[in-house]
Amino acid sequence: MSKVYLFREFDRLTAAAALLLAKAFDPKKELLVKMHFGEPGNKAALTPDDIAPIIGALNQLAIRPTLFDTPVAYNSPRNSVEGYRKVVKQRGYNELAPCIISDDFVEIEAKDFVVQAAKPLAEAEQVLVISHVKGHYCSGFGGAIKNLAMGGVTKKTKSVEHTLGKPKWVDDCEGCGLCAKQCPSKAIKMMDGKAVINLEKCWGCSICEVNCPSLAPQVALFDDLLGQAAVAVIHKMSPKTYYINIIKNVAKFCDCDADGGAIVARDVGMLFSDDPVAIDCASIDLINQAEGKDVFKEANFKDPKLQVDFAAKYLGQKQKDYLLQ
């Protein structure tokens, strides 16, 4: 059973982090840290101050990290290598450690599509994946799996993931209007008592598909595609890969939007594990326990563990139990 370590006191993290990271990494090897540096204007996104205790722990261990992310596919200052570099500098991350933005890739055949995995992740001797736990328009929840499934691939693969999950009708619309109310991209309108889907506006999130028996994905659920992409990246990464999930400023939406939306859960702490499935499951469970409800499903109309279930399936994990310490 995978172990997940929880530290609740953010101001006393460096020493605790050093103990765990000393077991995970070799100081003689280069360390690549998979990050999300945040969209300009997003007040809930992590800041260099949130990451500083982890960098401090690595420095204590004589491990010199390089921070890394990939450009985004949508309209943003971060949709080019040069533009994203400017954002990193503006947000002050380059003062913590050297930073790399790259869209270079290696290709991996997944079940339903070819994944262009980030080349720096594939070539790194050891990897630390730091994820901010929050909601998401399309996946409902974002943690380690989402960080790799979208953040660990090229702009082309990001677009493919959003395209293959678009809906198709498999039965007659009953006219309940639920899909139109829940659609994050406002791609569904009710006309003459029936739902009409504008596939050009559709983000391929699959929210309508998981909530309506009359709809199905054109190829696979968005969450299935996330699982495929994440596991493709994981299989290319070094066995010396470790995960940190930060449960702080838990917003309704993602750090990839300038407006992350309302805070939907209280701060819980920082989780450490060598298992991305376990750390995401523990993150969701801790938030739900703290709030007494299924936070992300209520906020974003989708089971947050759906993507985690698919990742576990493609990793060959028959159970997702974990030991919280």
UniProtKB/TrEMBL annotation:
The keyword Glycosyltransferase does not apply. Gene3D superfamilies: 3.30.70.20, 3.40.50.11440. One of its GO terms (molecular function) is metal ion binding. The keyword Iron applies. It holds the Pfam family DUF362. Residues 165-193, 194-222 form the 4Fe-4S ferredoxin-type domain. Keywords: Iron, Iron-sulfur, Metal-binding. PROSITE patterns: 4FE4S_FER_1, 4FE4S_FER_2. This is 4Fe-4S ferredoxin-type domain-containing protein. It comes from Candidatus Falkowbacteria bacterium RIFOXYC2_FULL_48_21. The lineage of its organism: Bacteria, Candidatus Falkowiibacteriota.
